[in-house]
Amino acid sequence: MRSAMSFRRDTLTKPIFSWARGVLPAMSDTEREALEAGDVWWDADLFTGNPDWSKLLRIPQATLTDEERAFLNGPVDELCAMLDEWKIFWEWRDLPQEAWAFIKREKFFGMIIPKEFGGLGFSPYAHSEVVRKISTRSIAAAVTVMVPNSLGPGELLMRFGTSEQQERWLPRLADGRDIPCFGLTSPEAGSDAASMVDTGIICKGFFEGQEVLGLKLNWHKRYITLGPVATLLGLAFKAYDPDHLVGDQEELGISVALIPTNLPGVEIGHRHLPSMQVFQNGPNRGRDVFIPLDYVIGGEARLGHGWKMLMTALAAGRGISLPSLSAAGAAYAARTTGAYARIREQFGISISKFEGVEEPLARIVATAYQLDAARRMTCAALNAGVHTAVISAIMKLHATERMRVAVDDAMDIHGGKAVIDGPQNYLGNLHRAVPVGITVEGANILTRNLIVFGQGAIRAHPYLLDEMNALADTDRERGLAAFDKAFWKHVGHSFRTLFRAFGRSWTFGAFALAPDAGDATPFYRQLSRYSAAFALCADMALLTLGGALKRKEMLSARFGDILSELYLLSAALKRWQDEGRQKEDFAALEWCMATGFRTIENRLAEILANLPNRFVAVILKLVVQPFGARVLGPSDRVVHQCASLVLEPTAARERLTPDLAHVDDDSGFARLERAFKLVTSTDAIAKRMRAARIRDAKDAVAKGVITQAEGEQVAAAHEAVTKVIEVDDFAPEALSPIYKKTGGVHQFFQELGEQRAAS
Asked: Which residue numbers delimit the Acyl-CoA dehydrogenase/oxidase C-terminal domain (predicted)?
């Protein structure tokens, strides 16, 4: 056996190894550190081409403890009651002071900090649920709460800080004595962190009256959330040691340090106004700011390890904050748009009856179902301590993109109601906030084209990372041995995937592996089929393009779309199973599956049409898509059933839109909820009136069609609907200071006319 393996290695593997080492592109330190950060999870199963569905269904659901549930129903509800989004973004341009004080007192900034350091010690799922609920009341408040619990000093200190740093800083972050922010983005670099010009030079200097070894820092950062009010800045910079004070290297690499903002040389800039959102955000600078080395997170030993630290922390944070806000936005859009479509009449009937309204409404409903399914499943991984790097990128990208579609659809259905701004507009500010989510934590264009598949293909593939590490090994003989082992396993995997993909594609997945999942069983078969097709095509693209694949961004994006759909559809199936296979919700699941399958088939067709090696493309088409892209998307029946899930006050509607912030005030959302309840509760009465061809409740009472009490119910519903349909208007002097100075718009134009006449 040993001689056979030696013969294979020396005769067959060695020339392949030599060729591959020659064509493998050099990997930068930042690329390698990004790849090594975080963990693989269900994405690795999908990359095998033969996912183990029993493993998926065994994943424990993310749940809240009694303490976490009490916080959600107590302090979170109290905070939401303090918030008036219109006043926050139009009048105050900030959260009210009592909200800031409450957030600090109740330790909203310390949700993820362990109890031994004074924090709440909540799970990632609890963090997600809190952000989700607050998001449906105020975007500014949600962002304010999410940032200290995401990528920032707290997360980095917990994972990488020394015990002394943790004991010093974490209690202050937990109770709000320090407000944190994190400075990563430089004007010159943007998303290309490797190009940042922010520097830290190791030198000796005086700090608190003593000469110590430290860093002289110079930086310029922008887009820093909480930056204008932060007292503790986490800073990413490039460290240099020109005088070799800590070692032989001069360029140490990206590092991360804590900077109290009251240090000499720190300059906190003015505020940004991102898409009219008024959460605290702005630039800052540092000019010759000196800190001791023990302000570097993790101490001297962590100098130059900052990029891996950031990517590891981001693997968790990116899977929580923005996906939570996005899932909340989609659920909020589903609840409000369903209610509005139900109560709003045009041409004498509810607009929810129009098929032109049903189609976008169904899309909103199914998006809400899918995003929350994926949010919960991702939180389940995070609760288990898995830091899902690729999945977090998928979640951030697709949650924000699909929220954008859902909110746009909601705006279209609401029409003028959502366009006219004012205290009664419950959608306008969410619509304005969407571009912020699209842009931050890695712009979606970059994430889709370079990260999801670019990292996923290496991290989640069963053998590719082992092969790359073997090829990069400086010990050639050791590298050859490792490559020989991984390469032939890869070859065997590719042949198994080839036959698996061929059989499943030609039989339309009829015999693919699937659990006994009732009505959903055929969906598992199709995902098994598409997983095999994806794995085979990915292998062939990597084989024929090698390192050039990362420059084929459109191909990479299409592969990433397929991987993303496989994950999101898996999450939707798991949700349906975990919730007890609710028959009422099956239409939402069907919509997700039909739409996802259409995307997968179209992306496969696009990949095969654009793969540079045309011979391989033709063979792959015969194997994985012999009959072309055939899925057309959800049927009209599914669209109708899906849209109807939010048109009545049912358990299905509550499952789809749970735990939104409900404050019984005179806000537009509260008015809508009251009107929806009144209209749906008088539906039987309204049907009797329509059958009698009577529209006026008083006439119906007079003619004995309905009782006096029923007439009063109908009148109350009509009045409630009228209040919802109303939009805000303003005195001209309330909107413009010009008219305040002249005594009103009429006087302004009268004086203007007189001036023209006189001239």
From this structure: 304-451
